[in-house]
């Protein structure tokens, strides 16, 4: 990753090996420049009014309105509970989001999208949105799509009828089929990928809780490697808490001076007090003039301080 061509000095390579040409292998997403979501809007934490959801694959952040979870807002919602009530799929209802771009490159996800536990948001002819892949179909506006439920029920009954018609009807065929089933164990690690009819929604996928754990048991390592997201989240490193109380400037000064011989301690205290007085004068002059203290001001201050000590 390093070096990356920034103005600040690299802290990994020694000074004698700097500067170095930038590493051309570095890759940065649009998030690096402050742009998020498929809409390409710039993110400003001071003005952003929408909640954004992180994709567990590419780790891009997407607006809830761009995911068709709720209409786009122009003003913030003060109460988090009110915000969740407006959301088509509340945050506690799923384990993770896989954005449409990540889904499009994985045949397994494309095949399972819309089935139970693999929730997708689809538009309706009435202009609202419906969630496929959970037990109860809920549309925006808190109204149930009875027509959609009836259609799904008809489709399920037709599928059952088709499967029944395709099964052998004779006892001999049943016996042969049962024998074949006992001899050949089903390979859960390599499920058959069936081509589904194209969907009208954006294609974002919301995984139910426990889905990744089930995939970890069901898929072999080769097939699991084709998924755009990890099946097990890595532990986030948290540095141990600092049990030592923070020292004040006076305590640090007293500790440092106390470790010096008497003559050097007196000179150090005199020099420290001299620096404080001159720094106070410089900062006060900047405050009275209304100008900000720049890096050049600080460097010039210490350069003059060193000259006065010679």
Distance between the termini: 44 Å
Order of helix and strand elements from N to C terminus: EEHEHHEEHHEHHHHH
Backbone structural class: alpha+beta
| DSSP E strands, number | 6
Principal-axes geometry comes out as: elongated
Uncertain residue ranges: 136-159, 161-173, 175-191
Helix content: 25-40%
Q: What spatial order of strands do you see in the largest sheet? A: 3-6-4-5
The share of residues in extended strands comes to: 5-15%
Tally of DSSP helical segments:
10
Give the integer mean of the pLDDT values.
Answer: 76
| Major sheet attributes | 4 strands, antiparallel
Using only CA atoms, what is the Rg? 32 Å
Protein name: Zinc finger PHD-type domain-containing protein
GO molecular function: ubiquitin protein ligase activity; zinc ion binding
Domain Zinc finger PHD-type: 36-103
Biased composition (Basic and acidic residues): 142-162, 171-195
List keywords for this structure.
elongated, 6 strands, alpha+beta, two-stranded antiparallel sheet, zinc ion binding, 310 residues
Put the structure in a nutshell.
The protein has ten helices and six strands. It is an alpha+beta fold and about 300 residues long.
Describe the structure.
The protein is of the alpha+beta class and about 300 residues long. It has helices at about 80-85, 100-105, 105-110, 145-165, 170-185, 210-220, 220-225, 250-260, 260-290, 295-310; strands spanning about 50-55, 60-65, 95-100, 120-125, 130, 205. The longest helix is centred in the last third of the chain and has 28 residues, at about 260-290.
């Amino acid at each position: 990753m390093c070096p990356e061509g920034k103005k600040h000095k690299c802290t990994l390579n020694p000074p004698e090996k700097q500067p170095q040409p930038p590493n051309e292998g570095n890759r940065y997403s649009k998030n690096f420049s402050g742009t998020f979501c498929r809409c390409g809007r710039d993110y400003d934490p001071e003005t952003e009014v929408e909640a954004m959801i992180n994709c567990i694959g590419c780790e891009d952040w997407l607006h809830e309105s761009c995911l068709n979870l709720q209409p786009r807002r122009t003003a913030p919602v003060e109460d988090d509970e009110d915000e969740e009530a407006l959301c088509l799929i509340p945050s506690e209802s799923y384990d993770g989001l896989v954005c449409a771009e990540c889904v499009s490159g994985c045949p397994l996800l494309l095949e399972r999208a819309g089935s139970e536990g693999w929730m997708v948001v689809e538009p309706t002819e009435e202009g609202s949105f419906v969630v496929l892949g959970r037990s109860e179909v809920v549309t925006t506006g808190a109204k149930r799509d009875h027509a959609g439920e009836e259609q799904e029920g008809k489709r399920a009954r037709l599928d059952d009828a088709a499967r029944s018609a395709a099964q052998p009807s004779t006892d001999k065929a049943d016996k042969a089929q049962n024998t074949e089933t006992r001899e050949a164990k089903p390979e859960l690690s390599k499920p058959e990928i069936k081509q589904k009819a194209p969907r009208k929604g954006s294609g974002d996928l919301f995984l139910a809780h426990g889905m990744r754990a089930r995939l970890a048991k069901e898929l072999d390592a080769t097939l699991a490697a084709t998924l755009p997201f990890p099946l097990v989240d890595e532990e986030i490193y948290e540095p141990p808490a600092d049990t030592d109380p923070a020292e004040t400037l006076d305590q640090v000064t007293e500790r440092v001076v106390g470790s010096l011989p008497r003559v050097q301690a007196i000179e150090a205290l005199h020099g420290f007090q001299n620096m404080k007085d001159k720094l106070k004068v410089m900062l006060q002059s900047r405050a009275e003039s209304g100008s900000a203290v720049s890096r050049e001001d600080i460097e010039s201050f210490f350069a003059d301080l060193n000259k006065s000590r010679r």
